[in-house]
UniProtKB/TrEMBL annotation:
The keyword DNA repair does not apply. Signal peptide: none annotated. It comes from the Bacteria. Keywords: ATP-binding, Nodulation, Nucleotide-binding, Transport. SMART domains: AAA. One of its GO terms (molecular function) is ATP hydrolysis activity. It comes from Candidatus Alistipes avicola. This is ATP-binding cassette domain-containing protein. Residues 4-231 form the ABC transporter domain. Belongs to the ABC transporter superfamily.
Amino acid sequence: MDILQVEHVTKRFARQTALDDVSLTIPKGSVYGLLGPNGAGKTTLIRIINRITAPDQGRVIFDGREMEPKDVFRIGYLPEERGLYKKMKVGEQAVFFARLKGLSRHEAVVRLKKWFVKFGIESWWNRKVDELSKGMAQKVQFIVTVLHEPELLIFDEPFSGFDPINANLLKEEIMGLRDRGATVIFSTHNMSSVEEICDHITLINKSHNILTGRVDDIRHRHGNNIFQIAYRGDGAVLRSALQGCCEVMEEPEPEFGSTYQMLKIHVDRDADVKGVIGRVNEAVELRSFNEIIPSMNDIFIRAVGGSLDNGTPRNFES
């Protein structure tokens, strides 16, 4: 069953089209990645879902019916641009935001105390916000976002500014929220996080939805003919030799202590692989030539660069 459907949404600002006929469907109980480069239209779509702005065309279906103003109380939203009142005390401000979401003061305090203990910030209850580090302030905002136990949670770059330990803490909490029945929309540039926690993704580029589906399905269906080369020699000579016969994707860092350089490529056709290997052998000393399943980062780069397909939206739902 689906909790949210975005149907043919278009949004324009003056001469700029932020979203152009974008559609997507978000299943209940999933973590759904909303991906795209800066300026692609992700934040505009999130604002439309939150009813901060309205589409020029199209509609949003929430839990089986067209979205209404009261539905925002069933949503928790953590924007990328954080905002806390710096001169207020942390606990006082958290209670204020909780009450805006419909909780009584007593219930807000009880729930907040539990979350503050879980995140190790209980000693900051009576401190002013401007005394918090960036990471501490983000923890407070995360807590306020999830406190009223919304059915739909929207996190826009939630790990920005976090050290690895706290980023992992947030990942665990997001997965826990999903396991308890919440649906999560997760907007990020961090492709490793997408592979770790997202069930489905939609990739928006230049205001269009260009790729949609389950993460595993997308990775496997784009796994054909992506290879990693280990070699010794002049990288510029190798790139020149490969020009016109395959797509050079990136240069991964070699393993620690290795004397070989690495290159990741995509070959369009099976029939071309043998010729590519021949060119590599002529240009450099070839150590290995291995086919790999692409990462979401590989797919993101190719899709945004226009080399994944002809630009037609692709759906890989199973």
